[in-house]
UniProtKB/TrEMBL annotation:
Name of encoding gene: LOC103888494
HAMAP family from the UniProt entry: UPF0434
Gene Ontology CC entries for this record: mitochondrion
Listed InterPro entries: Trm112-like
Subcellular compartments: Mitochondrion
One Pfam family, short name: Trm112p
Subunit architecture: Interacts (via TRM112 domain) with NDUFAF5; the interaction is direct and stabilizes NDUFAF5 protein. Interacts with COQ5; the interaction is direct, stabilizes COQ5 protein and associates PYURF with COQ enzyme complex.
Region annotation Disordered: where it falls in the sequence: 24-43
Gene3D superfamilies: 2.20.25.10
Record-given protein name: Protein preY, mitochondrial
Keyword Mitochondrion: yes
Keyword presence, Cytoplasm: no
Length: 113
């Protein structure tokens, strides 16, 4: 009987594909990948929602302070700095350049008066 590596080599040389191992099947299942037969079927996927339990671990990359989740705008808010980080498909974009300012700076407030 051939070992796993030898079986794959022999299958490759014959042009047949070795059956996926149990580990490979678990990895594909966990990653959400679908078998080739299922890829042709179009399914309506709902956008992933942000899990508020992540707020226990996430902090602002600039101030290292806790963030607040705002469901109406789907953003993570840093009240101290006045910055809002967008959440796209349930994944927070914590890159400072992607954040928007939620309040005007003091200089802008004085100019408007």
């Amino acid at each position: 009987m051939l070992s796993g590596a030898r079986w794959r080599l022999a299958s490759a040389l014959r042009g047949t594909r070795a059956p996926p191992s149990a580990v490979a099947r678990r990895c594909l299942h966990a990653s959400g990948s679908r078998p080739l037969a299922d890829r042709g079927k179009k399914t309506e996927e709902l956008p992933r929602a942000f899990d508020p339990a992540l707020l226990e671990f996430l902090v602002c990359p600039l101030s290292k302070k806790p963030l607040r989740y705002e469901a109406s705008t789907n953003e993570l808010i840093n009240e101290e700095l006045g910055i809002a980080y967008p959440i796209i498909d349930g994944i927070p974009n914590m890159i400072p350049q992607a954040a928007r300012m939620t309040r005007q700076s003091k200089k802008q407030e004085v100019e408007q008066r």
